[in-house]
């Protein structure tokens, strides 16, 4: 049986560590100024920064192997150009960091399965697309990082692609390639826009823009980093030199160093397995829901409030076909329902409920618990708490009876629980909610009228609600109930798992006594959050600096492509082997009918012999390899690019080739001089049937 949110211990322990970090940050600043609550909209803002800075860069950049590096250096030579380039780079790193943190937060808080599967998969697709676009951007600089990238990718794509960069005229051969890569780098972001639309497709009232203070802080951090640590290129790409130590941005190019250590096949296989698991996770790690919401037709008035309240567009109104005096009936799409319960909290007639957390049953349990506590002469307070707070231990400051029980079918369900103080004088009657937005104001009134000395609401911060709009929806309802605001009602927004949350909440209630007016703790927090204090702003700015600067420092490390002190020979071949004569395989009558100038080999497909190379270095054979002709029938050219590491100095080199399946012919013989780090290329010339040294 799949477990409930409250019964997934591994994820809850990991999420608890995350939310405790958020709670400590909230004590330094305010929850309203905690950037960890705005990772999604912050990512969108960084995309806008990348777009605006990229427009400036592309106007100056020259897509050509001979001039690309110089044009990038020209950008960096001016103060404004260096600022734009550096902000472009740091925004790209920040985008990966924020998207990964956003995905991690969604994973730990169980917001990746069920109706959220589309957002989960599209989010990873957006990240993969951003990474790919970033890699293309690094290639456009055409420095040693781009050279290492080119050599690695060309090696995977095979000899035909490697040959484009092997000859002395590679700049002319690859001119169109630079234009294509620039086109992809500039116009592929349009697909990110499509991905964002899919990402928010099932959301009502999607939030696209980050708060103004957050955008200002992000711009300030990007500018500070750009001025303090301007981005610079590595040495220019030189295919006649070995890539030695080169700084890599490991957020984008770390796979180069990893592939060198693990090998490209193993790295590709591991990446494929991890990617497949991430895509299948919404189905591999499903859990039991408290929902979906269920409509009671007899009680539904067709008012449409639940349709407007639902954050996921899971409810719609349809014409009724029964004898009701109302025209419409609310219908729930179970596949889209996230079991948040916001529709329950807005429905006054009680016409909708969660299948696994029935409000009627919970209210009956609440009345029974309050009656029992009053009979024992205790002073009970009712605490309305969302399941995140229950699961992550916000109420563990007093001896707790877990608010989880089992119904007659042995199905786990959240239940009302009681926590008593050590002196047995006071008690907390805990009313579990799927989300704070599930709380109906009438339930507060019922609790107070049945003996509760106070009613306390413990919810997530409004910017961190797992149901997106729970605290805001509840605030709108309570704002319309002025009488409740003058009673013993307290509200605290706190990070789930905050060990001081229930202490702060009960202390606020204990400091007031009826019949004096009591402060609404949530209103006080909301008023305070509107005041941008220096401490809150500075704390958020410092956190930004730590995340961005730390992420950049982690990303930039020198990585070595080849062992130092060596040189390299590159042997590049594109050659057609001899045609295989197959006239004897043709029937005699067909062979006699061959037109003039048409050979039997052409009729049989023009199959060619493989080309075999044997290389001796200093009279020692270092390679003997066969290369099949291209084509379905092996009718094309045989292509190969081989690299051989050698020590610097003078070497005697001999190369033999067999292209007819019978005899060897010498295609190179001579002395090769190589300096440390140098790459000497031997390129086969079809007309002279020999290798030429470059």
Characterization of this structure:
With 694 residues, this protein is an alpha+beta fold. It has 4 domains: 240 residues, Up-down Bundle (Cytochrome Bc1 Complex, Chain C); 69 residues, Alpha-Beta Plaits (2-Layer Sandwich), CATH 3.30.70; 166 residues, Rossmann fold (3-Layer(aba) Sandwich), CATH 3.40.50; 127 residues, Immunoglobulin-like, CATH 2.60.40. It has 25 helices and 21 strands. The strands form 7 sheets. Strands 9-10-6-11-12 form a 5-stranded mixed β-sheet, sandwiched between helices. Strands 17-14-20-21 form a 4-stranded mixed β-sheet. Strand 7 and strand 8 form a beta hairpin. Helix 5 packs antiparallel against helix 13. The two termini are 68 Å apart. About 5% of the residues have low confidence.
């Amino acid at each position: 049986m799949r477990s409930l949110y409250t019964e997934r211990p591994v994820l809850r322990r990991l999420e608890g560590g995350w939310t405790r970090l958020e709670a400590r940050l909230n004590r330094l600043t305010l929850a309203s100024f905690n950037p960890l609550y705005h990772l999604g909209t912050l990512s969108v803002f960084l995309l806008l920064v990348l777009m605006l800075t990229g427009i400036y860069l592309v106007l100056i950049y020259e897509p050509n192997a001979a001039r690309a590096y110089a044009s990038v250096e020209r950008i960096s030579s001016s103060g404004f150009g260096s600022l734009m380039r550096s902000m472009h780079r740091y925004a790209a790193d920040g985008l990966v960091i924020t998207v990964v943190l956003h995905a991690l937060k969604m994973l730990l808080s169980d917001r990746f399965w069920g109706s959220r599967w589309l957002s989960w998969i599209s989010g990873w697709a957006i990240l993969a697309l951003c990474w790919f676009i970033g890699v293309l951007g690094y290639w456009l600089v055409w420095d040693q990082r781009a050279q290492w990238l080119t050599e690695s990718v060309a090696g995977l794509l095979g000899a035909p692609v490697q040959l484009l960069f092997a000859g002395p005229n590679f700049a002319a051969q690859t001119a169109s390639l630079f234009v294509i890569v620039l086109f992809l780098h500039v116009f592929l972001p349009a697909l990110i826009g499509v991905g964002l639309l899919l990402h928010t497709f099932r959301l009502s009232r999607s939030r696209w823009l980050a708060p103004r203070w957050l955008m200002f802080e992000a711009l300030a951090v990007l500018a500070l980093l750009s001025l303090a640590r301007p981005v610079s290129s590595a040495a220019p790409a030189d295919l006649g030199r070995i890539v030695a130590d080169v700084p890599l941005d490991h957020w984008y190019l770390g796979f180069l160093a990893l592939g060198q250590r693990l090998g490209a096949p193993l790295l590709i296989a591991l990446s494929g397995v991890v990617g497949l698991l991430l895509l299948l996770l919404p189905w591999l790690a499903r859990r039991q829901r408290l929902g979906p919401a269920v409509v009671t037709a007899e009680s539904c008035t067709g008012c449409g409030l639940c349709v407007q309240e639902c954050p996921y567009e899971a409810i719609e109104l349809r014409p009724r076909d029964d004898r009701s005096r109302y025209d419409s009936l609310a219908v729930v799409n179970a596949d889209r329902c996230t079991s948040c319960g916001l529709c329950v909290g807005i429905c006054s007639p009680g016409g909708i409920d969660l299948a696994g957390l029935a409000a009627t049953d919970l209210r009956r349990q609440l009345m029974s618990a309050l009656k029992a506590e009053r009979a024992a002469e205790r002073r009970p307070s009712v605490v309305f708490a969302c399941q995140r707070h229950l699961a992550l231990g916000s109420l563990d400051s007093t001896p707790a009876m877990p608010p989880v029980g089992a119904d007659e079918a042995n199905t786990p369900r959240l239940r009302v629980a009681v926590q008593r103080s050590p002196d047995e004088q006071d008690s907390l009657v805990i009313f579990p909610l799927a989300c704070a937005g599930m709380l109906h104001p009438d339930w507060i009134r019922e609790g107070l009228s049945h003996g509760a000395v106070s009613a306390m609401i413990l919810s997530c911060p409004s910017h961190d609600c797992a149901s997106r709009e729970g605290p805001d929806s509840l605030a709108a309802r309570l704002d319309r109930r002025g009488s409740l605001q003058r009673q013993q009602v307290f509200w605290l927004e706190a990070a789930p798992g905050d060990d001081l949350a229930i202490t702060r909440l009960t202390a606020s209630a204990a400091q007031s006594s009826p019949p004096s007016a009591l402060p609404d703790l949530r209103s006080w927090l909301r008023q305070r959050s509107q005041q941008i204090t220096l401490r809150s702003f500075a704390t958020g700015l410092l956190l930004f600096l730590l995340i961005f600067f730390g992420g950049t420092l982690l990303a930039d490390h020198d990585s070595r492509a080849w062992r130092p002190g060596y040189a390299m020979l590159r042997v590049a071949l594109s050659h057609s082997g001899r045609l295989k004569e197959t006239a004897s395989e043709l029937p005699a009558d067909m062979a006699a009918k061959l037109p003039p100038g048409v050979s039997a080999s052409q009729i049989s497909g023009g199959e060619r012999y493989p080309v075999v190379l044997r290389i001796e270095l200093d009279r020692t054979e270092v390679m003997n390899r066969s290369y099949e002709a291209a084509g379905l029938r092996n009718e094309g050219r045989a292509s190969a690019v081989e690299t051989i590491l050698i020590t610097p100095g003078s070497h005697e080199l001999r190369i033999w080739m067999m292209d007819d399946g019978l005899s060897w012919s010498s295609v190179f013989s001579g002395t090769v001089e190589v300096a440390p780090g140098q790459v000497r290329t031997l390129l086969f010339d079809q007309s002279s049937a020999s290798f030429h040294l470059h």
